[in-house]
Amino acid sequence: MRLIQYGNVTVVEPRVKAWGTIGHPIQAIVRLADLILSVDSSNLFGDLGGFNVLHAWIVDTEDEIILTEILKVMGISAQNNPICSRMMVKLGLVETLSSLLKSNNTNILLRVMSPLSSLSNMDPEATLRFINCGGLKKLLAISISENIQIKEEVLYLLDSLATEAKVDGIGTLILEHPGYSRLLEESLKHDEVRIRRIAIAVLLSLTEGGKEPIDRIKCSNIPAALGSLYLNAQDDDEKEDSAILIETIRGTLEKGID
Question: Rounded to two decimals, what is the model's pTM?
């Protein structure tokens, strides 16, 4: 085993050529995804240096199928598992995964946002690292996609970053990008109800940051879009969620909407 340096991160030298002698490498990774479904197995995999090896393979491989399967393993390992998330963050996986947001491959984009969301939910440092490596700018660049799944994953990742205001000023940092205000405004007007619902969740998370992000929301076109959504809500849940968000933005405890 030989250690090599990728920027500030030391990883195990990829042995992709050697692994190529495995008869069915894809099936091996798929099987791994099944094995680490339990928290204990996932933690053991991390203790054995498994994330280090997968990290090296992500950096090295040009095989789209292998890469997407590895990203699936990363997402499973990080989900609701603070121990594995901490290991992955310390290895520099947030920076490596964020670099994949520049990909032109839809499958890779869809896969990579899942572990990024899970890491952001589990570890505040993951959110900070994502911001510091330019993740917000990269995410905004792909948010213009017409692909509904990509738009959903972008909104889910935004929600993970903003939830509970894990990083001071995260709401303001997001809303400083005019593109995010436009994205949320357009999402509130979207034909797909699930896009509208996720956008409401993101905005509620952003308001957890206090007065400054709320003021930025007030100064955008989001309140108008939200008011229109409230008036034209397709069901009681959408109407109620809209009302809660409107009240939060207004900074009142009103029970109704004028």
Answer: 0.84
